Amino acid sequence: MFHPVTAQVDEYPWLADILQDESLPGTVYGDDSVVWGTSLGPYLNSTELKERLDLMTSTFPQLVSPFVLGESYEGKTIHGIVLTVPQQTSLEKKYDSILVGAHHAREAITVIDIVLFAERVIKAYLEGDSWAVDLLTTVNLHIVPMLNPDGVDFLHQFPWQRKNMQLFDGDFDGFLSDNFEAQDVDGDGYVHMILSDAGGFDGYEGIDGDDNDTRTGEDLPGGIDLNRNYAYEFVGDGSSTSPNSYTYRGPEPFSAPETLAFSEYALANHFTMSMSLHSGIEAIIAPWGYTPFAAPDAQLFDRIMTELQMRAYYPSWAEVGGYGVNGEWGDWMYGELGSIAMTIETYGADTLQVTNNRYYGIWDAFNPAANNIYDQTMFGVQKHLDYYFTVPQQDYFPQYVDVGNVAFDRHDGQLAYEIEILSVEEGVDLQVEIYNPETYLWESIHTNDYLALSDVHYEIIDVADTVADEHIRTYIGDSSKGWSYYTDFSDGPVGEGLFGDLLLRTSSTPASETSDTEPSGATLSTVIMFSSALVVLVIRNRR
Fold first, then answer.
1. In a 10 Å sphere around its CB, with 0-12 CB exposed, 13-18 middle and 19+ buried, how is residue 402 labelled?
2. Which of 63-77, 179-193, 207-221, 440-454 has the lowest mean pLDDT?
3. Residue 68: phi, psi to the nearest 5?
4. Element (H, E) at 17
5. What is the DSSP string of 194-218?
6. Of 90, 107, 116, 256, which one is least surrounded by beta carbons within 10 A?
7. Quick check: 266 and 144 in contact, CB under 8 A?
8. What is the DSSP annotation of 424-464?
């Protein structure tokens, strides 16, 4: 008897089987992508990725739906798929989550990591594995394996490429067409970074391009660092204004077509969980990237990170001495959209060496050898992914809290609140923090371990009048799981909570003339009283 599911599993060329082929080569002399050429050997270029996603879609149409994220700078289609199964009932809650790879071109292992994970989910579901069945029953999993196809497709010429391929006049000579000077001139498998006698960067092995400036290899193939081009804390020391820098953030947020396309897709979908994969080191990263200050949901992130590390220990970003970043994907996903967004650095090796003022081994610093790909990903990031996207099934998230009127006033050294909890299944925590400009830290000045369905009145004394109103913030939710509601005036008139878009509308109406009339289209209105102004806080329902 013919069993279509069995046939699908047996006949599909699973990537896991390909990666376990004993004939795959080990360490390749030279930068592997240069040696392999356009095919990138066992790795995937953009054409090969599309072919595999198309095959996945046509073979498993009951589980896989394709979508187009947008186009790259060079006009390549950025492909994605959604893994899901139909809801069993109209009342069933399904979460949307997203997984994205190859923000940075030379981190080609992230594409393999993601495709392997997608196929593992499909195969496990068809074989009746309860983990995969529960996952796809609970989650619509959106997958974008290669956000930067232009850069990935250029690795066979320039394995150092990190950014997209957006042209710029890197040496400010008026020429754009000379941005491809770096190449393997001597045919030894490496495109060398050349250092000056003093140890500084002098250029790359290459040619003198159309500019005929007598310099060789100083003009690079573009572009913008996609992971510095998002519209959250865009400006700062964690990115560069120089087009020649590997962390060039671009002239403005979303000035790269790849990040603009991603932002439009993310804005059209509410992603409860979001994950981005990188390589260059092994580490787990949670917001914030732009500041060492703790994120509002730091306890929730810490709880998830602890669970991840129980499965395959990767250190945290702080444990590996991570640096600050600006305009970063995770900060935008979390800070702007309220998604629980984390980044995993999936692989790194200390292979760079200097001989005769030339750097060697850039490919191997970011990507494992062909015969080590399977073990590296299966015993590392795959274990993290297996758990991460099942988080909505866990008892992690705080309950949604409807908050009514919040009266806030401060005078004579006292900070006074009046809070009304409109609906809540259980009691919730409340915490008030104040920013200390001397220590650069937020300090808790009040914690109430339990708020019931009722009005709550209290006062906090001994708050200095010199503390600005914008340095006070309030959290309501579950302190062990995260906060579903908070006001944060430290970054201007927007606060973000896990389950709500918070929009602050200021008014010159005197406090004595306040009104709690609900704005049109909103589900909830909160009045926050200041001594000289009225702020109306609107919480809109998530889609």
1. middle
2. 440-454
3. -110, 120
4. helix 15-19
5. EE-TTSSEEEESB---TT--S--S-
6. 90
7. no
8. -SS-EEEEEEEEETTTTEEEEEEEEEEE-SSEEEEEEE---
Give Cβ neighbours of residue 363 (< 8 Å, ≥ 6 apart).
31, 32, 33, 34, 106, 155, 159
Instruction: Note the pTM of the prediction, 2 decimals.
Output: 0.80
Distance set, CA 507 to CA 13, 449, 511, 529 (Å)? 62, 33, 10, 11
Task: Give first-to-last CA distance, the chain, whole Å.
Answer: 44
- Closest CA relative to residue 295, chosen from 347, 364, 361, 341: 341
Transcribe 371-396 into DSSP letters: GGHHHHHHTTHHHHHHHHTTGGGSTT
Rounded distance, CA 265 to CA 282, Å? 28
pLDDT, one tens digit per residue, over 254-290 is 999 999 999 999 999 889 899 999 999 999 999 999 9
| Contact between 106 and 162 (Cβ < 8 Å) | yes
Q: Which two tokens stand for residue 411?
A: 């005078």
pLDDT tens digits, one per residue of 306-338: 999 999 889 988 888 888 999 999 999 998 888
182 vs 179: CA distance, rounded Å: 8
- SS3 at position 137: helix
- In this structure, the strands spanning 139-144 and 95-100 are parallel
CA distance to 58, 168, 215, per residue, from 174 (Å): 48, 10, 15
Q: Residues of 231-242 as b/e, b for ≥16 C-beta within 10 angstroms?
A: bbbbeeebbeee
Compute the distance between CA of residue 298 and CA of residue 317 in angstroms, rounded to an integer. Answer: 14
Q: Which H or E element spans position 527? A: strand 525-529
Q: How far apart are CA 343 and CA 447, in angstroms?
A: 31
